[in-house]
């Protein structure tokens, strides 16, 4: 996971002074009763408190176990590399030594990286409390300090079919069909909706992008990489103030400008990826003409309700998509990218819109109202991954 760090941490939200325990108004007994009821309601528990309740579900591995599981972190078993470190395919034995071994993915902290223990701990705590089919499952971790220095590793379920990024942008792979693209985005939206509203606390994912959407053998999406996740605001707070981190081209503008992080920040990034699956283009491609390098700027010239709209659709789809459903997806993306964050839909509303688009696609049976266009020759894509700016 490569990230950009723009601002230092904003000043922490000032602690509110304790208000009087009782606001007495003898003339309005019903108000006092309401106040008593509100005071009696339990306060939401924090991520740390929820984790303490669930930490027994995670297995604690020794460094030697994970070294053996990866054949001493053999380069031939490396699955990928990011800002945190490298990810390896490994095989672990059951804790009791009985039964079959399990294939896993093991992420090893880069000791010289700028990210590190804080993000490792974030992944352990957030993934230690969540349970959803569209979120990658954390099986355990390793945390040892010794002569080798600090060793921080994470052990996940193995998700074999790479990422949405790989299947969208790698020209050596078969084209990802239209309906499958929508189904992947629906699963990802359901995972985000769970983080936003399905837990005792709200979780802001903060790093939604196509490279963080893992795909299993059935192309079921699983969100991964929770190192940047944050607990959402509580009480009457509207946002979390934090350093601006994320991936260039994805972060919401109000977050980049102010450091104010909200649930709506995730909605913006989801809108960016919706345009990626529509166009087959990365959010930034420096090898294109200047007017086309930034995806969100380019698509503005092809509104979803215009005759020009079909010109932005991924040519590798060969018009095997229903134009009506495609327009709906672009309209949904535009709503997610609303400049005023309060005007963006909730992720639950996004889920319903995607279900409707999938239904439209099924009814259309792959028919399209646009004229066939030749497939553009594939120029070599430049991999514009996250960068610090």
């Amino acid at each position: 996971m490569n990230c950009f760090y723009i601002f230092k941490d904003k000043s922490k939200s000032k602690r509110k002074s304790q208000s009087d325990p009782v606001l007495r108004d003898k003339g309005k007994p019903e108000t006092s009763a309401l106040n008593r009821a509100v005071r009696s309601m339990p306060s939401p528990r924090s991520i740390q408190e929820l984790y303490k309740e669930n930490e027994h579900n995670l297995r604690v591995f020794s460094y030697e176990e994970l070294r053996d599981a990866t054949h001493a972190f053999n380069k031939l078993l490396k699955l990928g590399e990011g800002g945190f470190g490298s990810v390896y395919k490994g095989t672990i034995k059951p804790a009791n030594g009985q039964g079959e071994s399990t294939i896993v993915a093991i992420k090893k902290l880069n000791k010289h990286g700028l990210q590190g223990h804080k993000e490792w701990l974030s992944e352990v705590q957030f993934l230690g409390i969540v349970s959803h089919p569209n979120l990658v499952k954390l099986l355990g971790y390793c945390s040892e300090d010794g002569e080798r220095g600090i060793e921080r590793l994470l052990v996940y379920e193995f998700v074999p079919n790479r990422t949405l990024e790989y299947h969208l942008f790698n020209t050596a792979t078969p084209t990802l069909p239209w309906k499958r693209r929508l189904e992947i985005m629906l699963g990802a939206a359901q995972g985000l909706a769970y983080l936003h509203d399905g837990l005792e606390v709200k979780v802001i994912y903060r790093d939604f992008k196509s490279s963080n959407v893992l795909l299993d053998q059935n192309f079921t999406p699983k969100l991964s990489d929770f190192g940047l996740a944050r607990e959402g605001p509580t009480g009457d707070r509207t946002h979390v103030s934090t350093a601006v981190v994320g991936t260039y081209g994805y972060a919401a503008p109000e977050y980049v400008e102010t450091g104010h992080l909200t649930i709506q920040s995730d909605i913006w990034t989801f809108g960016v990826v919706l345009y990626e699956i529509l166009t087959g283009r990365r959010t930034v491609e420096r090898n294109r003409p200047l007017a086309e390098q930034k995806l969100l700027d380019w698509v503005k010239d092809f509104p979803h309700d215009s005759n020009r709209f079909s010109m932005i659709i991924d040519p590798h789809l060969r018009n095997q998509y229903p134009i009506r459903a495609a327009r709906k997806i672009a309209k949904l993306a535009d709503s997610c990218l609303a400049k005023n964050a309060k005007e963006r839909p909730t992720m639950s509303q996004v889920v319903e819109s995607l279900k409707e688009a999938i239904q439209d696609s099924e009814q259309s049976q792959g028919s399209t109202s646009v004229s066939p266009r030749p497939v553009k020759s594939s120029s070599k894509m430049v991999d514009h991954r996250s960068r610090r700016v």
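Residues 178-197 form the longest helix (20 residues). Confidence is low (pLDDT under 50) at residues 1-29, 366-389.
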